[in-house]
Design a protein that fits this description.
Layout: H1 5-9, E1 15-22, H2 30-47, H3 50-55, E2 56-63, E3 67-74, H4 91-111, E4 120-125, H5 135-147, E5 152-157, H6 163-169, E6 177-179, H7 184-199, E7 216-218
Parallel strand pairs: 1-2, 1-4, 4-5, 5-6
Antiparallel strand pairs: 2-3, 6-7
């Protein structure tokens, strides 16, 4: 079968993850510096596992405004860019964009005969959606996708995040977590460990046991 070059060169199963990152103005300074350092640590950690480096397929969508910073690429091809903070918080639009991006990627996998694990969408925010942002509709799409086992959604709040809204967006069985300070590094190392576990499991199998979360806590 003739397929796209990336799949001819690397026909491994794919483990897709979208990092949905709030880059609004309130993230400027130390939070954005810590986030960028965390992305570097994420790449370095996944690269330590040869199989995961070929299977973990990462895309980055920033919002403030919504922008595709990095289209899907395996970790061995991933070059973290330095994200910059500016703008407002169009969270609903960003979630919808990410869901569309993911469906397009799944179609590409199928068209190229590539098997894939249940995708992850990983939201990081330090605020609340813009007042006019259609986040409720986006949350409904997420819940439907979760119910159909089309993805696993994770939400992380940084200091200042509206956790009540994140609780309405995240699935009840996976409530949002509040990051301990600006410990993005520990969070991304946890994510890399999780991706390594998923990428070494059976496609279509049960959800793997994830490592313990030491970098955040459920907000009460």
């Amino acid at each position: 079968m003739i397929g796209q070059p990336e799949f001819v060169e690397n026909p491994e199963n794919r483990c897709p993850v979208i990092l949905l990152v709030d880059t609004s103005s309130s993230m400027s300074g130390a939070p954005m510096d810590a986030l960028n350092s965390g992305l570097e640590a994420f790449k370095e950690a996944v690269l330590q596992d040869e199989q995961a480096a070929l299977r973990v397929d990462v895309a980055i969508v920033s919002f403030g405004p919504v922008e595709l910073v990095q289209d899907f690429v395996t970790i061995d091809q991933f070059i973290p860019l330095q994200l910059e903070a500016h703008g407002l918080t169009p969270m609903g639009e960003a979630i919808s964009y990410a869901l569309d991006l993911l469906e397009n990627r799944k179609t590409t996998y199928r068209n190229n005969g590539i098997q894939y694990y249940r995708p992850w969408v990983f939201l990081i925010t330090d605020g609340a959606p813009n007042p006019d942002s259609p986040w409720q509709q986006a949350a409904e799409r997420l819940k439907n996708a979760e119910a159909q086992r089309k993805l696993s959604f994770f939400a992380v709040g940084v200091q200042g995040a509206d956790m009540s809204i994140l609780n309405q967006i995240a699935p009840p069985e996976r409530p949002p977590l509040m990051l301990n300070g600006l410990d993005f590094r520990s969070m991304f190392l946890w994510l890399s460990d999780s991706m390594v576990r998923v990428s070494s499991s059976t496609v279509g199998g049960d959800m793997v046991a994830l490592p313990p979360v030491g970098w955040g806590q459920i907000a009460t």
